[in-house]
Amino acid sequence: MKTFLTLANSLSIFRLVVAPVLAWMILSNRWLTASFLLILAILSDIFDGRIARRKNQDSAFGGLLDHSCDAFLVAVLLFVLSKTHGIPLFLPLLVLGSFLQYVLDSKALSGHKLRTSFLGRSNGIAYYVLASICIFTEALGINFSGNLFIVFAWVLISSTAVSMSERLWTLLNK
Q1: Which domains does the chain have, with CATH numbers?
Q2: pTM for the full model?
Q3: 167/120 Cα distance (integer angstroms)
């Protein structure tokens, strides 16, 4: 029997806990602190799965927890960045909808492992990239055109919609 409280799961939960703190730092224009917390969150995402596999503690639950914490964190970040950087509000809503579809489609709530796709994984990374660019450029005092962020966000909206359509198509053709 695998235990819930593992180092890997704790690293995932860290992202859940740090999300509202990150939001507050962004809204308070504490970009350097937000950058530091975001780096810690990214590192926790990089290492949680590796640690779980190395310690033979990987599980369907751990995978669901990892992806849930990722979705929550990026949705919170993109929502706050819609206020500070003009990211379309539709993007964080679509991230949550896409994640919900991902969980339901994979039957993860009944203990199945999540069924990933290349485009879905790429989008997940790109959500982090967009949030990171917004936060790190503020911390470094680099002035990027706001249009760059918005164009990147619309590309992500489009690719997320395509990913969701592909998942739906696959599900309907089973």
Answers
A1: 7-172 (1.20.120.1760)
A2: 0.91
A3: 9
